[in-house]
Amino acid sequence: MLLTDKVAIVTGGGSGIGEATSLRFSQEGAAVVVADMRLRKAEAVAKQINEQGGHALAIEVDVSIAESVATLVDRTVAEYGQLDVMFNNAGTLRPGTVIELDVDDWDLVMGVNVRSVYLGGKFAIPAMLNSGGGSIINTASISGLHGDGGAVAYAASKAAVINLTRAMSTDHAADGIRVNAICPGTIETPPVMRMMEDPVALEINMRAHAIGRLGRPEEIASAALWLASDESSFVTGEAIVVDGGLRAQSPLGRLADPRPEHLR
Ligand SMILES: NC(=O)c1ccc[n+]([C@@H]2O[C@H](COP(=O)([O-])OP(=O)(O)OC[C@H]3O[C@@H](n4cnc5c(N)ncnc54)[C@H](O)[C@@H]3O)[C@@H](O)[C@H]2O)c1
Q1: Cβ(181)–Cβ(135) under 8 Å?
Q2: Cα–Cα dist 97/93, whole Å
């Protein structure tokens, strides 16, 4: 039990990576606030946790709106008395080159992916100071490390998350607050699996990861758990890549494909 007596907020907790992490944090002893703009999804996850004997509360939030995030933190502290872990995980993607992308979609992506991390820190850190410190984890992406085109706002937003993580970590290390990011490869979550209904997209994505498959939400939850817990007590300002070896191989490496036939 790595999170006994801890209180965690998981944004985007109603689906995918956030859902898996909410369940994992609870299994490790944390009380979990499952926060999502889709309240019914968050309620379903909280219900599952409570039925398994854990402690969870679902709260509706829009992570891009200051008042909404402030209320989320206030309600968490009112319910559980403290805040130890903030997982800024909610995110969104709108495809497009700079020519194609609408200005409104640029603002939406930057609001949900970047302003959310600023707001999550702004309101969580004062609460964490009251309980002697904490761990903030931000979901970035390998898209924040590469210049892959086709979703420029998303790529820019995730790069911003990585450097915002570093800057926050240096400001608050002395307060006992660690701030880290996770950069997932392609993970089997509902929006991704809709894209993977195209067999060509699935094939390309499987081959791109050296391990030969997509990642599972539980595999990102494991990384989040480690960063949330004291097991990572000397780690801050990092962007941990969890990508099944995607970045380890060059495109040329795929020509000499060592994987079994069924994975090619
Ligand atoms: N799945 C992947 O392959 C992958 C790869 C790299 C990074 N990520 C990142 O992981 C995070 C989680 O994505 P996922 O794949 O689990 O997707 P998902 O759609 O399964 O979950 C995201 C959740 O965030 C919620 N959300 C969206 N906008 C919100 C807002 N403004 N306020 C509150 N909640 C909001 C959605 O309702 C949804 O429940 C995102 O930040 C995403 O960019 C995903």
Answers
A1: no
A2: 12
Alpha helices in the chain (DSSP H): 16-27, 39-51, 66-80, 103-110, 116-130, 152-172, 190-195, 199-208, 217-228
**Best CA proximity match to 167, nearest among 154, 181, 157:** 181
Q: 0.90 cut: is pTM over it?
A: yes
Judge contact between 246 and 209, C-beta under 8 A.
Answer: yes
Is-catalytic flag, 154?
Answer: yes
DSSP β-bridge partners for residue 151: 96
Mutation test of ligand 1: which of 164, 187, 196 has the most ligand atoms closer than 8 Å to its C-beta?
187
Task: Give residue 225's Cα distance to chain centre.
Answer: 11
Ligand 1 pocket list (CB less than 6 A)? 11-12, 14-18, 36-38, 41, 61-64, 89-92, 112, 139, 141, 184, 186-187, 189-192
pLDDT by residue (tens digit) across 61-112? Answer: 999 999 999 999 999 999 999 999 999 999 999 999 999 999 999 999 999 9
Contact 151, 96 (CB under 8 A): yes
DSSP string, 68-93: HHHHHHHHHHHHHS---EEEE-----
Output the DSSP codes for 169-220: HHHHGGGTEEEEEEEE-SB--HHHHHHTTSHHHHHHHHHHSTTSS-B-HHHH
Q: Calculate how far, in angstroms, residue 135's C-alpha sits from the geometric centre of ligand 1.
A: 20
Which CATH superfamily, name and number, covers 7-189+216-243? NAD(P)-binding Rossmann-like Domain (3.40.50.720)
